[in-house]
Amino acid sequence: MSAVANPATVAECLRVGAGFSQSDRNWIAEQFATLDARLAGFHADATELEVSVKDREARGQKVTLECWIAGRQKIVTTSAEEDLHAALNDVRDDLRRRLNDAKTRQEPRHNKHLRDIPEPQGEVDPTTAPEHLPAADRSRADAETA
After folding, report:
1. CB within 8 A of 49, min separation 6: which ones?
2. How would you write the pLDDT of the chain (146 residues) with one tens digit per residue?
3. Are 56 and 91 contacting, i.e. CB atoms less than 8 angstroms apart?
4. Which DSSP symbol is given to 135?
5. Is the CB of residue 114 less than 8 Å from the CB of residue 107?
6. How far is it, in rounded angstroms, from Cα 35 to Cα 92?
7. Which helix (H) or strand (E) holds 110?
């Protein structure tokens, strides 16, 4: 279960931009449905996705997927795949990777277990237990001063 009261979903947050019509929206939302698990950690009202295509169905078409999440930098993914279906899958997979990378970068700051580094067992801290320090080697002291 998600900790977010109203988790973001592709169906709720997706807008279609240039090159797509509203009738394409459901088909694209189905293609992007695997992003739902990654987006579920964010509030729906603070998350937006927009997909657009330049020169659709032509050589050199460019699909762009933009993602805005409140409090984070905008993420833009693009694909120049000639097949529209492949291009949509490409931008979807790239966005998923970038969201995972962003989460990984933030986790250590918010996960106390990752920040706490336990002291190695068996080593003694000389400031807390001076009686455990080894005795000075006299022969070595003479060699160092000579």
Report:
1. 10, 13, 14, 15, 32, 35, 65, 66, 67, 68
2. 446 788 888 989 999 999 998 899 999 999 999 998 888 888 888 899 999 999 887 888 999 999 998 888 899 999 999 999 999 999 999 999 998 887 766 555 555 565 555 555 655 555 555 555 556 555 555 555 54
3. no
4. P
5. yes
6. 7
7. helix 84-110
Nearest to 80 by CA among 61, 102, 56, 55: 61
H or E element in which residue 115 lies? helix 112-115
Contacts of residue 94, defined as CB under 8 A and 6 or more positions apart, other chains included, come to: 65, 77, 79
**Angstrom distance (rounded) from CA 7 to CA 41:** 6
Q: Which helix (H) or strand (E) holds 84?
A: helix 84-110
- Using CA atoms, how far apart are residues 117 and 70, in angstroms rounded to an integer? 32
d(CA 45, CA 74): 15
pTM assigned to the model: 0.67
